[in-house]
Amino acid sequence: MNVLEARGLEKSFGDLKAVNGASFHIAPGETYGLLGPNGAGKTTAISMIAGLLEIDGGEVQINGEVMTPRAIAPKAHLGLVPQDLAIYPDLTASENMTFFGRLYGMPKDKLKARVAQVLEVVGLTDRATDVTKEFSGGMKRRLNIAIGLLHSPQLLILDEPTVGVDPQSRNAILEAVEQLSSEGMAVLYTTHYMEEAERLCDRVGIIDQGQIKAEGTRRELVQMVGQKDRISIAGNGPILEVVRVLAGTEGVSEATSDENRIVLLVEDAGARLAAILSTATGAGLNVTGVEIEEPNLEAVFLHLTGKALRDE
Amino acid sequence: MSKILTIAAKDLKLRIRDRSVLIIAFLAPLVLALIFNVVFGSAFGTGSEFEPALGIVSNDSPRTSTVLEGIATEVGGTWQTFPDRAAAESALEEGDVEAVFVVPAGFDGGVDQGQGGSLEVIGDVDSSTSTQIATAIAESYGLGLDQIGLNVATAIASGGDPAIVIPAATSGGIQPLADLSDITAGVRQLDGTTSTVAGMAVFFLLFTAQVGLLSLLEERRDGTLARILSTPTRPSAVLAAKSLVSVVLGLASLAVLIVAGKFILGAEWGNPAGVLVLVVAAVLAAVGISALTTGLAKTPESAGNMQGIVGTVLGLLGGVFFPIGDDGGILASISALTPHHWFIRGLSDLAGGQSASAALPSVWPLLTIAAVTAFAASFLIRRQVSK
């Protein structure tokens, strides 16, 4: 059974249709990325999934239980890490976590041990008794995530968790998500950072104007829009002859040359690289360097929506 | 229930660390009461019982004169007799007396004939409280006489012999004419110190009571409310916790001020059980009003501003800073809509060793204010949680 089932979600604010028929699901241990620019409807979708917003249309199920703002049972399976910091600056890190742990109904003795454990995971053990208003931005972000992890939820929702975070904290956050996923936690990760989605997500849903435009693994999305890998081979020898031979090789859709460099457009470069290099050397090329460029989600997004992920 | 207590405990911890609530709830009212007491102490007659200086002009009505003198003595006043109205007015101008009863000629004789009657009161404009006391005594006395007159007329109309009915109706002396406790109930006054501390306490109560509920808007602004609501916690539990914090802070504030007022400033509060009931009712009313302003506001800042205006206006109308007359005028009617009025009135009714039940006439209006405002607020404030 999927941990999350979202079917035909709809939400309007006045005339604005923020989410318009979005559907997706997440299996246990899967990290699902909701990729879209600011204003695409990611946070609204998350608010409905977390039971913070009434749903105009469609349905959300967490572990088979229907989620609404008044629902109690499905919320016990859910950990939310909101985009904006949601911690109390006048409480210590430990007090912040203990407070939310009690709201999840965690027993006192178990809660104390779990607080220490999660603080260790996010690297805040030595700051446990400091009030959080004295924390750096990155430390606050890590605590923000730690609260979401505290009760070991089956579904962790991370809404743009790395916005405004320094590179060191960002890397720590990404590593923590990878670890949680490997431990079997289902993760819903929204971001407009393409590289984060590519690194973390097993599947990606591309959302724009409240609609899921496409979803699948990175490779599936790339294939869906016809994007191909690019192999660039540098070398000496009969360049034009080698280009002619490679153009007829299986999987190569286009072969061109530029001085001492041959550029190929290939489906699944990783799988075909060995055969291509063998063909090239067989045709007399002395290979001095190889570069592979895989089409990224930015390109897919541009293709699907006609706009870039980030405005900057 | 445990979640309500968890949220309330967290809020109280934050408020204590924040320290602002300590100033609003405890320090400011106490310091202001102290300052008011020092500055206006002589005007209030600090540390001493209120003693109205009363007098009478009565040439041929010794019975009425005796009754009124007895009442004046009971309320702790001084008593003088004047030969005529001119002498009384002169004494008033000199400040020797604060209010004088003028008994019409032949007053007692009229009473003996079973007629009602009314007394005139002339008073010093600078001693409104004494004049109010004298007026209340005169009105109550007059009502007693009217009742006797009515009884006599009814008896005669039913075939009674006037020669028997009239002496029988008036022979009771003082008691049938007026009940002293009824008369003084309407005019009991807190001494200056107690009145000042009570006024400051109830004035700041409205600000203290908002602290808990205001945090609802603050948490919504800061995103922690959404996080709380993403846990298995009902919105109603959040509202209950915030209200509980307001009630606890309100009770603590009044308790500290009442105890400090007694031991530091020498305030006299009256029957402890009566005061306790009054305090609880006043806190509930203040929390209801705070919930209403919080429900109407969109941001913590606007809620704070709104409460500031509401608290000050209600304080002024409720007689916190200066007395609003009980003479039935429009201001008196408006004043009766404020919790401040009923809290101070209730404490006044408890003054002078009255039993706890003396506070009840003020407790009911306070609870009514609490119920009405809480009912209206419940619709508005639910919207704050679900936004």
What this model shows, in words?
The complex is a heterodimer of chains A (312) and B (387). Chain A is an alpha/beta fold and 312 residues long. Helix content of chain A is 35%, strand content 29%. Chain A has helices at residues 42-49, 93-103, 108-121, 137-149, 167-182, 194-200, 218-224, 239-247, 269-282, 297-305, and strands at residues 4-13, 16-26, 31-35, 57-62, 65-66, 78-81, 155-159, 186-191, 203-208, 211-216, 229-236, 252-258, 261-266, 286-293. Chain A has a six-stranded mixed sheet with strand order 6-7-8-3-9-10, with helices on both faces. Chain A has a four-stranded antiparallel sheet with strand order 2-1-4-5, with helices on one face. In chain A, strand 7, helix 5 and strand 8 form a beta-alpha-beta unit. In chain A, helix 2 packs across helix 3, helix 4 (137-149) runs parallel beside helix 5 and helix 8 packs across helix 9 (269-282). In chain A, 44% of the residues are buried. Residues 42-48 and 173-187 of chain B have low confidence and may be disordered. Chain B is mostly helical and 387 residues long. Chain B has 18 helices and four strands. Chain B has a four-stranded mixed sheet with strand order 2-1-3-4, sandwiched between helices. In chain B, helix 1 packs across helix 13 (235-264), helix 11 runs antiparallel to helix 17 and helix 14 (272-296) packs across helix 15 (300-317). In chain B, strand 1 (53-57), helix 4 and strand 2 form a beta-alpha-beta unit. Chain B has helices at 2-18, 20-39, 41-44, 62-74, 85-94, 107-112, 128-157, 162-170, 174-177, 180-185, 192-222, 224-229, 235-264, 272-296, 300-317, 330-335, 339-350, 360-386, and strands spanning 53-57, 78-82, 99-102, 120-123. Chain A binds chain B through residues 47, 50-52, 54, 69-70, 72-73, 75-76, 78, 80, 82, 84-88, 90-91, 95, 99-100, 102-105, 147, and chain B through 2-3, 6-7, 10, 13-14, 17-18, 222-224, 226-235, 386.
